[in-house]
Amino acid sequence: MKLSRSQKIMRLFTSEERFKMMKEESMIWGFTCLNCTERTSFWEMGGIRYKASGTPKMRFSCPKCKHKAIQLIDKLEL
User: Mean pLDDT across the chain, nearest whole number?
Assistant: First the structure.
């Protein structure tokens, strides 16, 4: 998968080890589509969520069903 612009910028200004940690944590954060229940990580959407807390709401389009809605960003339960 290609990196988004923000991910490329972070890769430029951080060490390889720190960037790997950012990617791993961003893969844990994401949303579950209200329409098709597909789970999408924040990293797959082109974002970075590192050392974050809280559960913000953002408008996204599901990559699977293309349904646009305000989604709750939360941590994936492991």
Answer: 92
